[in-house]
Amino acid sequence: MRWNLAYRTLFHDRGKLIAGLVGVIFSVVLVNIQGGLFFGLIHKASMLVDRSNADLWIGHRGMHNVDFAHPIPERWRYVVAGVEGVDEVQPLRVEFGEMSLPGGGFENVVLVGIPETTDLGRAYSIVDGPENALDLHDAIIVDRCDSEKLVGPDIGELREVNGRRVRVAGKSNGILSFLVTPYIFTDYENAIELAGSDPSETSYLLASVAPGADRDAICREIKRLLPDVEAMTADEYASVSINFWMTRTGLGLSFGAATMLGLLVGLVMVGQTLYAMVLDRISEYATLRAIGLSERELLSILAFQSALVASIGIAIGMVITVILKTLLSTPRATIEIPLMLYVGCGVLIFAICLFAAGLPYLRVRRIDPHTALQS
C-alpha cells in the first residue's frame, strides 16, 4: 500500500517527474564526459608505454617521462638478459628531431627507433601501407592524426629528418604524443643515423618476463646489478609519466579543477532538482501525515521516490553517455571513461538524490497536519 502510494504520487505529476529526471540525466552525462576527457588526455602521456608490449622499462636513474630519455649504455642489455625471469630484452631509442615540410618549413618530431626482430616498443598498428613497412630502406611511419602538422605526407613520399632523406612507408592511427610533436617510428639503426647519436648508447631497454615471474623482484635485481639505472614495470612507468605532467605543469590543477567543478555543478543540480521536486509536494506529504502516516513511513516514501528517480535518471544518463562517447571520441579528443568512473558517478549521484530528498522531510515534520487538511 505504502509503495503503491509512493509510486502513484510520483508519477501523477509527470511534468515534475521529468524535470527531476532531466536534472539527474544531465548530471550523469556531464560528470562522465568531463571525467572521460580528462582521463583521455592524461593517458596520452603514457601511450608509448601502455602499447609497448613490454613488461619492464629500464632507463636512466630518475627517469620521469617517456618522451624525455637520457642515454644509457646499450651493452647493459646483456646484464638485464642474464637476470632470472627475463625472457627478452631489446633497446629502444627516443630522440627529438626535425622534419622538413613541403612549403620549406619544419616540424619538430619525436623519433622512436625499434629493432626489426621484435614487437617490444612497437606501439603502432599499420592502417595504411604494408605490414612490413619498417623493413623498407629509410622507412618511417607517421600517424594519420598528425597529417595536418606534417602537411599530409602520402605513402611513398620523400621527406627529410634532420637533413637526411626518409620515405613515408606506412601510417598508424591514434598514436599521439602528449607533446605537440608527432611520433615518427623507424628502424632502430635508422633512428641512430637520423639522430646522429652514439650507437653504443640507447634510450631505454625494454624487457618481457617469463610467465609467472615476479616483476618487482626482477626490477630490484636489475637495480642491484646496475645501480645507475631505474627499472620499473610498464604500469609503474606509465603512472610516473602521467604524474610528471600532472605535477610539473598546471594541467593537473587546472583540468582537475575544471573536472571537479563539473562534478560539483552536476551534484548541485541533482540536489536542487530533487529538493525542489519534493518541496512542490510538501502539502501532499503533510496531508499524508494528517491521515495517519507515521514519520518513519513518510520518510520511507520520500526515500523510495528519490531512489526511483535516481535509478531511472542514472540508467538513462549512462546510456546517453555511452552513445556520446561513441559518437564524439576521437584520437585527438579521446573520451576514456573507466569503469570506476561510471560506478563512482552512479553511487555519488544516487547518494546525493537521497540526501536532497531527505532535507525537505525536516520541513514536513514542522507542518501542522490540521493546518494542511484545512488548506
Can you characterise this structure?
This protein is of the alpha+beta class. It has two domains: 167 residues, no CATH class; 166 residues, no CATH class. Helices cover 50% and strands 18% of the residues. It is built from twelve helices and eleven strands. The mean pLDDT is 84. This is FtsX-like permease family protein. It is found in: Cell membrane. One of its GO terms (cellular component) is plasma membrane. It is a multi-pass membrane protein.
Provide tags for this entry.
375 residues, alpha+beta, 9-stranded mixed sheet, 11 strands, elongated, transport, transmembrane helix, FtsX-like permease family protein, cell membrane
Outline the fold blueprint.
Layout: H1 2-12, H2 14-42, H3 47-50, E1 56-60, E2 72-73, H4 77-81, E3 86-100, E4 106-114, E5 139-143, E6 158-161, E7 164-172, E8 183-187, H5 188-195, E9 201-202, E10 204-209, H6 215-225, E11 229-233, H7 234-248, H8 251-279, H9 282-290, H10 295-328, H11 339-366, H12 369-374
Parallel strand pairs: 4-8, 5-7
Antiparallel strand pairs: 1-10, 1-11, 2-9, 3-4, 3-10, 5-8, 6-7
Helix pairs in contact: 1-10, 2-8, 2-10, 2-11, 8-11, 9-11, 10-11
| SS field, number of helical segments | 12
The chain-level mean pLDDT equals 84
Distance between the first and last residues' Cα: 25 Å
- Report the β-strand fraction as a percent range: 15-25%
Inertia-based shape:
elongated
How many domain modules? 2
SSE topology string? HHHEEHEEEEEEHEEHEHHHHHH
Please count the beta strands (DSSP E, at least 2 residues each).
11
Structural class: alpha+beta
Biggest sheet architecture: 9 strands, mixed
